[in-house]
Amino acid sequence: MSRTGLAGKITSVLKNENCISLYSYGVYAFFEAAVIYILAHTYDKEMFGEWTLFYSINILLDKLIFGIGSFSLTKFLSESVDSQRKEALIGSSWAINGVIILLLSVVSFGALIFSRLVPALFSNQGSLVLLFLFFPPLALLRLPFNQSLAILQSRRDFWSILILRLVGMGVFTLFCTVNLFFRLDLLWIVFAYTMSNVVNALLCIIKKWSGIGLIGKRNKETVSQLLAFGKYSMGTFIGFNILRESAVILIAFFMSKEDAALFVIPLRLIDILYVPLLGFVAVALPRISEAFSKGDNEQVRMIFCKYTGSLIIAYIPAAVLLYFLACPLIWFFGGSQYSTDPRALAIFNILLVYSILLPIDSMAGTTLDAINRPKYNFIKVFVMLGINVAGIIAVITLFRSVIAVPFILILNLLAGIIIGIYFLKKHIQLIVFNIFGISIDFYKKLFLKIMGDNI
């Protein structure tokens, strides 16, 4: 085979939907990491900790809304072939999310008024007061983005998702870069983040990705169906994102914002390994949903094993590489104030073990949702959450050290894997030992496809 032919085959692989989905999550993760890098180098630990708390809680609330009406939209759109049915699903999803945002906005404004009436309780919680003020407009602006993500994912239009992720977070990253020279206070950072979401919302509406014009197509039956699924997926999304952010929030409240900022640096570095995971899960969900809707459990098992095993095999050498790059990565990402603190390195190295286990837990949860068993994924996540919160509070109370926290993250992940595999064995007769056999076969076929006549 000529070099041109080999290059063409490599290009073909790099243009498939798995890789494009990976690029979209990679772009978002890059910008998110860039923002953390820039802000960590712009402000002291206390100010950076304030932003971390605001952003973590806001993202958690955003995922709550997404879990109720948008996540279930992806699943049902993937299964449906009827255009009127799809329009009803999109319109009903908009109606559900609109009501949820209205209710949460009332609570947010109520909390803002309370903070003004009892200022002593919020004297050192400026980030929470800003959250109460900015959450309603942010939630409204994020809705077209979330709806577009759900619709585009169901269509497996990952190029459009890539553009969507690139624009909004790119604008915010640009502002943070310029702000290196001005060092504006937290209010301006939050305002810039809000304006970046304005840009995203306008893009979604102009490109007609969000389906906002279909809200009139909603009906009671479809709303009920989405809510029946969404009540569990909402809980799962809340639980999953509390799992991701609870360590930071609990450290901030039970220790200090400086300790939370220290923990965020290695935690966000581990998010490098979340990029391929989220990218491949985004492709796997509609595929598994479609296979299950056709009653093809064999294909469901095949997809689960291929994606899970392939990611684990890829993560092992990646974790080894990150282990040797730990010090320069922490220095580059957080600066000397974190790289000279041995706790940051210890946390990062412990979290590398955690990262290798991520694919099997994540794919188990995704598969449970895709085969119409969101209740079991909900149970799995909340058992993990209980272990996480109770464990973190216990180790902080006993040891007063952030180094003990990542061990709890590993413990709750192992619990989630055991529960998830148990339910999958029960409902799709999953054979765990097939995971690596199927994934090794996938890598062999991929290698042969690329090399062709060269071997």
Protein described:
The protein is mainly alpha-helical. The chain has one domain (3-454). Helices cover 85% and strands 0% of the residues. The chain contains 17 helices and no strands. Helix 3 (45-79) packs antiparallel against helix 8, helix 10 (274-293) packs antiparallel against helix 11 and helix 10 (274-293) runs parallel beside helix 14.
Beta-sheet strand percentage?
under 5%
Low-confidence stretches: none
Total domains? 1
What pattern of helices and strands is seen along the backbone? HHHHHHHHHHHHHHHHH
Q: Percent of residues in helical segments?
A: over 70%
Computed Rg: 22 Å
Overall mean pLDDT stands at: 86
Structural category = mainly alpha
Largest sheet: none
The geometry reads as globular
| Number of helices, where a helix is a run of at least 4 consecutive DSSP H or I residues | 17
The total beta strand count reads 0
N→C terminal distance: 9 Å
